[in-house]
């Protein structure tokens, strides 16, 4: 019998003559220019040409003379989940079965807990076996949904500003994104108005629909605008989707943080429910964005394919933290946790937004979620300010963000990153601040932002 080494040897020896010498050329990969073999070149889907907003902001923060930076940019919590959920996670780690693979659709206890928690909103008993599937965060859930339904060339409608991960999630299976902008209130630069004043032009939305439109993504409560879509707006969107048989992907990761009545689009009618997949996130619900537990709910006919895609992508999700989230859902109501969430976040919103009222800077009063968009059109940036070239070439909000980090040590996110270039001008005077931070951090941010006074023109 020939030994494996003998079989392999000739191949190894022949290889140099069979292979062409590698082609070397200069490529840009995440903004880094280097000489790379053609074979090592990344696929277009990951080879971003522009520096993304997170690296620009992090780089600016690291370079700022004002240390430590008050980071109100990224939407992670500056405090821990409540004790009853943390304890559940710690106890889960001591259980043998919680440290092993979960079923691909998720742990039965968590699916049951989610079905029980959401059935009252749906007005009927949800089936945890067929209508709920657990994912590795909402983000992987949405990737699974697109992987399940999008063929190359299929179109997906999203509203601007969008959650940035939608883009690659749609493009990976070959989807084509069709953008429809949300329009801010005309007086947004001079008056504080409700985030509800950011509106969709429904004619514009209808014109965006083509025979290839397969899915539409809606996000309510909305990141970054803070809008909670009204029942009437949702009905109009749903009617268009029903008429054109478009699957609705409703991203409701901030569903426990609403300060006005909140409607879930799937609950509008049994017909709408049939075409809707609802997205949830334990990270957002339980202040644990690093746990990476999310879920999708919807009719069995849709969920089965999403669950199949999820199995291909990551097989199953983190077991002990699924168990902890199950206990979180089981106990949240009796612990009064959902009411606490709303009360605490609303208090943080008011605490932080007091600085804008003090400075006379208008903002979109959030109806939900934990982001606020301040309109800084009244802020005059110093002439000849030394912005680095990669910031100077971006819209005004990038310059505002850079300036705030360098001069005051406060990090916020420029929202034009969540627009196409064509529509970026819509949001170039806004900055997004995340208020899910401890109160002393919010106070420090306010104190620093008082320095803006001398740059404000009435
Ligand atoms: C609108 C929206 N959808 C989805 C997500 C992702 O949620 P997860 O952390 O559960 O993946 C985020 C996170 O910031 C978000 O803002």
How would you describe this structure to a colleague?
The chain has 458 residues and is of the alpha/beta class. The chain has 3 domains: 16-49, no CATH class; 53-75 and 338-455, Aspartate Aminotransferase, domain 1 (Alpha-Beta Complex), CATH 3.90.1150; 83-335, Aspartate Aminotransferase, domain 2. Helices cover 40% and strands 16% of the residues. It contains 16 helices and 16 strands. The chain has helices at 4-18, 53-63, 83-93, 108-122, 137-149, 165-171, 202-208, 231-243, 270-274, 282-285, 300-314, 319-335, 337-359, 389-392, 396-408, 439-449; strands at residues 24-29, 32-37, 70-71, 132-135, 155-160, 176-183, 193-194, 199-200, 213-219, 247-251, 276-281, 294-297, 363-365, 371-375, 410-411, 430-434. Strands 4-12-11-10-9-5-6-8 form an 8-stranded mixed beta sheet, sandwiched between helices. It has a 4-stranded mixed beta sheet with strand order 7-13-14-16. It has a two-stranded antiparallel ribbon with strand order 1-2. Strand 9, helix 8 and strand 10 form a beta-alpha-beta unit. Helix 2 (53-63) packs parallel to helix 15 and helix 5 packs parallel to helix 6. The termini are far apart. 45% of the residues are buried. Mean pLDDT is 92; it is low at 1-19. Residues 75, 137-139, 163, 219, 223, 251, 253, 281, 283, 289, 294 line the site of pyridoxal-5'-phosphate. Pyridoxal-5'-phosphate (PLP) binds at residues 75, 137-139, 163, 219, 223, 251, 253, 281, 283, 289, 294.
């Amino acid at each position: 019998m020939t030994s494996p080494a003998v079989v392999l040897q000739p191949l190894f020896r022949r290889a140099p003559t069979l292979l062409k010498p590698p082609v070397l050329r200069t490529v840009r990969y995440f903004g880094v220019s280097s000489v790379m073999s053609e074979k090592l070149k990344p696929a277009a889907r990951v080879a971003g040409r522009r520096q993304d907003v997170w690296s620009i902001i992090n780089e600016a923060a690291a370079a700022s003379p004002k240390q430590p930076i008050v980071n109100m940019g990224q939407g992670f919590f500056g405090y821990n989940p409540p004790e009853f959920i943390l304890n559940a996670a710690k106890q889960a780690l001591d259980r043998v079965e919680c440290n092993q693979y979960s079923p691909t659709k998720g742990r039965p206890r968590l699916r049951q807990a989610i079905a029980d928690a959401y059935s009252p909103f749906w007005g009927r008993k949800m089936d945890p076996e067929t209508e709920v599937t657990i994912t590795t965060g909402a983000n992987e859930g949405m990737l699974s949904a697109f992987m399940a339904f999008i063929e190359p060339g299929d179109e997906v409608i999203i509203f601007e500003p969008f959650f940035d991960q939608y883009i690659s999630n749609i493009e990976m299976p070959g989807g084509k994104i069709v953008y429809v902008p949300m329009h801010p209130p005309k007086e947004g630069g001079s008056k504080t108005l409700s985030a509800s004043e950011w509106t969709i032009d429904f004619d514009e939305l209808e014109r965006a629909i083509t025979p290839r439109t397969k899915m539409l993504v809606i996000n309510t409560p909305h990141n970054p605008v803070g809008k909670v879509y009204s029942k009437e707006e949702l009905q109009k969107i749903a009617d268009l989707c029903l008429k054109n048989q478009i699957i609705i992907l409703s991203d409701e990761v901030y569903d426990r943080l609403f300060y006005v009545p909140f409607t879930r689009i799937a609950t509008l009618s049994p017909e709408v429910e049939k075409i809707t997949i609802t997205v949830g996130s334990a990270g957002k619900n339980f202040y644990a964005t690093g746990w990476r537990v999310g879920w999708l709910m919807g009719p069995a006919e849709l969920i089965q394919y999403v669950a199949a895609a999820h199995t291909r992508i990551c097989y199953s999700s983190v077991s002990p933290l699924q168990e902890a989230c199950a206990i979180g859902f089981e106990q949240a109501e009796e612990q009064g946790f959902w009411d606490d969430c709303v009360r605490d976040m609303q208090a943080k919103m008011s605490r932080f937004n007091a600085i804008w009222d003090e400075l006379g800077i208008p903002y979109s009063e959030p109806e939900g979620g934990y982001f606020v968009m301040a309109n800084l059109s009244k802020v005059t940036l110093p002439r000849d300010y030394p912005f680095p070239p990669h910031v100077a070439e971006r819209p005004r909000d990038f310059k505002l963000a850079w300036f705030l980090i360098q001069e005051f040590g406060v990090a916020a996110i420029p929202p034009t990153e969540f627009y196409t270039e064509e529509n970026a001008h819509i949001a170039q005077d806004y900055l997004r601040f995340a208020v899910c931070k401890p109160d002393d951090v919010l106070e420090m941010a306010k104190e620093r932002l008082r320095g803006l006074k001398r740059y404000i023109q009435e």
